[in-house]
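re: ur question from earlier - yeah i can do the single chain one, its not a big deal. heres the input i used so u can compare w yours
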Amino acid sequence: MRAKSRKAAEDESRMTTIAPINPTELEFDNGTFDAAQFAAETLQNWQSLAAVIDHTLLKPDATRAQVENLCDETVRYRFACAMVNPSWASTAVSLLAGTGIPVGVVIGFPLGASLVSTLRQEASALVKLGAKELDMVIPIGQLKSGNHHAVEHAVRAAANVAHHNGALLKVILETALLSVEEKLRASELAIQGGADFLKTSTGFASGGATAADVALLRGVAGARCGVKASGGIRTLADTRTMLEAGATRIGASASVAIVRELGAD
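and the output i got, formated as C-alpha coordinates:
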Protein backbone atom coordinates (compact mmCIF):
# COMPACT_ATOMS: atom_id res chain seq x y z
CA MET A 1 0.00 0.00 0.00
CA ARG A 2 1.52 3.34 -1.07
CA ALA A 3 2.50 5.70 1.75
CA LYS A 4 0.73 9.04 1.98
CA SER A 5 2.53 12.03 0.55
CA ARG A 6 3.61 14.75 2.96
CA LYS A 7 1.03 17.14 1.45
CA ALA A 8 -1.78 14.59 1.84
CA ALA A 9 -0.82 14.02 5.46
CA GLU A 10 -0.81 17.75 6.13
CA ASP A 11 -4.22 18.17 4.45
CA GLU A 12 -5.65 15.34 6.54
CA SER A 13 -4.24 16.89 9.70
CA ARG A 14 -5.89 20.21 8.91
CA MET A 15 -9.25 18.47 8.46
CA THR A 16 -9.10 16.78 11.89
CA THR A 17 -7.95 19.64 14.10
CA ILE A 18 -9.34 23.05 14.92
CA ALA A 19 -7.01 25.66 13.50
CA PRO A 20 -5.82 28.13 16.15
CA ILE A 21 -7.38 31.56 15.94
CA ASN A 22 -4.90 34.28 15.12
CA PRO A 23 -5.49 37.31 17.38
CA THR A 24 -5.72 39.50 14.28
CA GLU A 25 -8.88 37.61 13.30
CA LEU A 26 -10.64 39.09 16.32
CA GLU A 27 -9.47 42.67 15.83
CA PHE A 28 -12.37 43.81 13.68
CA ASP A 29 -14.72 46.55 14.83
CA ASN A 30 -17.92 44.57 15.34
CA GLY A 31 -19.65 47.39 17.17
CA THR A 32 -20.33 47.57 20.88
CA PHE A 33 -23.22 46.32 22.96
CA ASP A 34 -23.98 47.84 26.37
CA ALA A 35 -25.03 44.77 28.34
CA ALA A 36 -25.39 46.67 31.61
CA GLN A 37 -27.81 49.16 30.10
CA PHE A 38 -29.81 46.47 28.32
CA ALA A 39 -30.07 44.42 31.53
CA ALA A 40 -31.13 47.41 33.59
CA GLU A 41 -33.84 48.40 31.12
CA THR A 42 -35.08 44.83 30.72
CA LEU A 43 -35.30 44.24 34.47
CA GLN A 44 -37.27 47.44 35.20
CA ASN A 45 -40.51 45.46 35.27
CA TRP A 46 -41.81 41.99 34.55
CA GLN A 47 -43.40 43.02 31.27
CA SER A 48 -40.11 44.12 29.70
CA LEU A 49 -38.44 40.97 31.01
CA ALA A 50 -41.16 38.72 29.58
CA ALA A 51 -40.62 40.33 26.19
CA VAL A 52 -37.12 38.79 25.94
CA ILE A 53 -37.99 35.29 27.19
CA ASP A 54 -38.71 32.38 24.84
CA HIS A 55 -41.30 30.33 26.77
CA THR A 56 -40.08 26.83 26.03
CA LEU A 57 -41.46 23.28 25.95
CA LEU A 58 -39.11 20.85 24.22
CA LYS A 59 -39.33 17.68 26.28
CA PRO A 60 -40.05 14.59 24.15
CA ASP A 61 -43.14 13.58 26.09
CA ALA A 62 -44.89 16.95 25.85
CA THR A 63 -48.63 16.55 25.32
CA ARG A 64 -51.15 18.65 23.45
CA ALA A 65 -52.58 19.87 26.75
CA GLN A 66 -49.13 21.07 27.80
CA VAL A 67 -48.61 22.84 24.48
CA GLU A 68 -51.99 24.54 24.88
CA ASN A 69 -50.99 25.65 28.38
CA LEU A 70 -47.66 26.94 27.08
CA CYS A 71 -49.45 29.05 24.49
CA ASP A 72 -51.98 30.34 27.02
CA GLU A 73 -49.13 31.43 29.30
CA THR A 74 -47.24 32.97 26.39
CA VAL A 75 -50.25 35.17 25.59
CA ARG A 76 -50.99 36.01 29.24
CA TYR A 77 -47.46 37.20 29.98
CA ARG A 78 -46.57 38.33 26.45
CA PHE A 79 -43.39 36.28 26.19
CA ALA A 80 -41.12 36.76 23.18
CA CYS A 81 -42.33 33.52 21.60
CA ALA A 82 -43.62 30.04 22.31
CA MET A 83 -40.84 27.57 21.56
CA VAL A 84 -41.94 24.03 20.63
CA ASN A 85 -40.80 20.91 18.81
CA PRO A 86 -41.66 20.59 15.10
CA SER A 87 -44.55 18.18 15.63
CA TRP A 88 -46.39 20.86 17.64
CA ALA A 89 -45.67 23.77 15.29
CA SER A 90 -49.04 23.84 13.54
CA THR A 91 -50.87 23.53 16.86
CA ALA A 92 -48.96 26.44 18.37
CA VAL A 93 -49.40 28.57 15.25
CA SER A 94 -53.16 27.98 15.38
CA LEU A 95 -53.38 28.76 19.10
CA LEU A 96 -51.37 31.99 18.77
CA ALA A 97 -53.04 33.24 15.59
CA GLY A 98 -54.02 36.88 15.91
CA THR A 99 -52.05 37.46 19.14
CA GLY A 100 -48.99 38.97 17.49
CA ILE A 101 -46.77 36.48 19.32
CA PRO A 102 -44.56 34.31 17.11
CA VAL A 103 -44.01 30.58 17.30
CA GLY A 104 -40.43 29.37 17.56
CA VAL A 105 -39.44 25.85 16.53
CA VAL A 106 -36.20 23.87 16.88
CA ILE A 107 -34.54 22.20 13.87
CA GLY A 108 -31.69 19.72 13.64
CA PHE A 109 -32.38 19.27 17.34
CA PRO A 110 -30.83 18.30 19.71
CA LEU A 111 -27.80 16.60 18.13
CA GLY A 112 -26.92 18.86 15.22
CA ALA A 113 -26.34 15.78 13.09
CA SER A 114 -28.90 16.23 10.30
CA LEU A 115 -28.08 16.30 6.62
CA VAL A 116 -28.07 19.86 5.28
CA SER A 117 -30.80 18.86 2.83
CA THR A 118 -32.90 17.61 5.76
CA LEU A 119 -32.24 20.79 7.72
CA ARG A 120 -33.29 22.90 4.76
CA GLN A 121 -36.46 20.87 4.20
CA GLU A 122 -37.36 21.02 7.89
CA ALA A 123 -36.87 24.79 7.97
CA SER A 124 -38.92 25.22 4.80
CA ALA A 125 -41.80 23.07 6.09
CA LEU A 126 -41.92 24.91 9.41
CA VAL A 127 -41.93 28.44 8.01
CA LYS A 128 -44.72 27.37 5.65
CA LEU A 129 -46.67 26.25 8.74
CA GLY A 130 -46.17 29.72 10.19
CA ALA A 131 -43.09 29.47 12.42
CA LYS A 132 -41.32 32.83 12.70
CA GLU A 133 -38.25 31.80 14.69
CA LEU A 134 -36.03 28.78 14.07
CA ASP A 135 -33.44 27.51 16.57
CA MET A 136 -30.93 25.18 14.89
CA VAL A 137 -28.01 23.19 16.29
CA ILE A 138 -24.68 23.48 14.47
CA PRO A 139 -23.09 20.27 13.15
CA ILE A 140 -20.97 19.84 16.27
CA GLY A 141 -18.99 16.86 15.00
CA GLN A 142 -18.05 18.73 11.84
CA LEU A 143 -16.80 21.66 13.90
CA LYS A 144 -14.67 19.36 16.03
CA SER A 145 -13.31 17.73 12.87
CA GLY A 146 -12.13 21.10 11.60
CA ASN A 147 -14.62 21.16 8.74
CA HIS A 148 -15.49 24.82 9.11
CA HIS A 149 -17.03 25.04 5.64
CA ALA A 150 -19.61 22.40 6.61
CA VAL A 151 -20.61 24.38 9.70
CA GLU A 152 -21.04 27.67 7.85
CA HIS A 153 -22.81 25.90 4.98
CA ALA A 154 -25.37 24.33 7.34
CA VAL A 155 -26.07 27.66 9.03
CA ARG A 156 -26.34 29.49 5.72
CA ALA A 157 -28.75 26.89 4.34
CA ALA A 158 -31.12 27.38 7.27
CA ALA A 159 -30.61 31.16 7.34
CA ASN A 160 -31.50 31.50 3.67
CA VAL A 161 -34.80 29.69 4.19
CA ALA A 162 -35.61 31.61 7.36
CA HIS A 163 -34.79 35.05 6.01
CA HIS A 164 -36.55 34.44 2.68
CA ASN A 165 -39.70 33.80 4.68
CA GLY A 166 -39.32 36.63 7.19
CA ALA A 167 -38.18 34.40 10.05
CA LEU A 168 -35.26 34.66 12.49
CA LEU A 169 -32.53 32.07 12.90
CA LYS A 170 -30.94 31.33 16.26
CA VAL A 171 -27.86 29.09 16.07
CA ILE A 172 -27.20 26.75 19.00
CA LEU A 173 -23.49 26.08 19.60
CA GLU A 174 -23.94 23.59 22.49
CA THR A 175 -21.16 25.32 24.41
CA ALA A 176 -20.87 22.62 27.08
CA LEU A 177 -19.31 20.34 24.45
CA LEU A 178 -16.82 22.86 23.06
CA SER A 179 -13.41 24.19 23.98
CA VAL A 180 -12.90 27.95 24.18
CA GLU A 181 -11.23 27.83 20.77
CA GLU A 182 -14.20 25.96 19.32
CA LYS A 183 -16.70 28.40 20.86
CA LEU A 184 -14.89 31.33 19.28
CA ARG A 185 -14.67 29.62 15.90
CA ALA A 186 -18.29 28.41 15.97
CA SER A 187 -19.56 31.88 16.89
CA GLU A 188 -17.81 33.52 13.96
CA LEU A 189 -18.90 30.80 11.53
CA ALA A 190 -22.52 31.12 12.67
CA ILE A 191 -22.47 34.89 12.21
CA GLN A 192 -20.87 34.59 8.79
CA GLY A 193 -23.56 32.06 7.89
CA GLY A 194 -26.34 34.50 8.72
CA ALA A 195 -27.30 33.86 12.35
CA ASP A 196 -29.61 36.41 13.95
CA PHE A 197 -28.72 35.06 17.39
CA LEU A 198 -25.93 32.95 18.86
CA LYS A 199 -27.43 30.53 21.38
CA THR A 200 -25.60 28.65 24.10
CA SER A 201 -27.34 25.33 24.58
CA THR A 202 -30.07 22.85 23.78
CA GLY A 203 -30.68 21.97 27.41
CA PHE A 204 -30.08 18.31 26.52
CA ALA A 205 -26.28 18.17 26.83
CA SER A 206 -24.05 17.90 29.89
CA GLY A 207 -24.48 21.56 30.80
CA GLY A 208 -26.43 24.68 29.97
CA ALA A 209 -25.77 28.39 29.82
CA THR A 210 -23.02 29.99 31.85
CA ALA A 211 -22.26 33.67 32.27
CA ALA A 212 -18.75 33.08 30.95
CA ASP A 213 -20.05 31.54 27.74
CA VAL A 214 -22.63 34.26 27.23
CA ALA A 215 -19.92 36.90 27.66
CA LEU A 216 -17.68 35.06 25.21
CA LEU A 217 -20.42 34.86 22.59
CA ARG A 218 -21.24 38.53 23.08
CA GLY A 219 -17.56 39.37 22.75
CA VAL A 220 -17.45 37.75 19.31
CA ALA A 221 -20.84 39.09 18.22
CA GLY A 222 -20.36 42.68 19.35
CA ALA A 223 -23.42 44.43 18.00
CA ARG A 224 -23.75 42.17 14.97
CA CYS A 225 -26.39 39.81 16.34
CA GLY A 226 -28.27 38.77 19.46
CA VAL A 227 -27.17 36.26 22.07
CA LYS A 228 -29.62 33.77 23.58
CA ALA A 229 -28.85 32.08 26.88
CA SER A 230 -30.65 28.79 27.44
CA GLY A 231 -30.31 25.67 29.53
CA GLY A 232 -30.65 25.64 33.31
CA ILE A 233 -32.10 29.14 33.70
CA ARG A 234 -34.71 28.75 36.42
CA THR A 235 -34.71 31.88 38.58
CA LEU A 236 -34.70 35.66 38.30
CA ALA A 237 -31.14 35.65 39.63
CA ASP A 238 -30.08 33.27 36.84
CA THR A 239 -31.77 35.51 34.30
CA ARG A 240 -30.17 38.67 35.64
CA THR A 241 -26.74 37.05 35.45
CA MET A 242 -27.22 36.10 31.80
CA LEU A 243 -28.54 39.52 30.81
CA GLU A 244 -25.66 41.28 32.53
CA ALA A 245 -23.23 38.99 30.71
CA GLY A 246 -24.63 40.07 27.34
CA ALA A 247 -27.72 37.99 26.55
CA THR A 248 -30.58 39.67 24.71
CA ARG A 249 -32.88 36.64 24.74
CA ILE A 250 -33.49 34.00 27.40
CA GLY A 251 -34.76 30.49 26.74
CA ALA A 252 -36.53 28.93 29.71
CA SER A 253 -39.27 26.53 30.70
CA ALA A 254 -39.51 28.25 34.11
CA SER A 255 -40.54 31.51 32.45
CA VAL A 256 -43.69 32.05 34.50
CA ALA A 257 -41.87 31.53 37.81
CA ILE A 258 -39.15 33.95 36.68
CA VAL A 259 -41.50 36.82 35.82
CA ARG A 260 -43.52 36.21 38.96
CA GLU A 261 -40.37 36.90 40.96
CA LEU A 262 -40.42 40.35 39.40
CA GLY A 263 -44.06 40.97 40.29
CA ALA A 264 -46.23 39.25 37.65
CA ASP A 265 -49.49 37.72 38.86
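The two ends are 73 Å apart (CA to CA). not sure if urs matches, ping me
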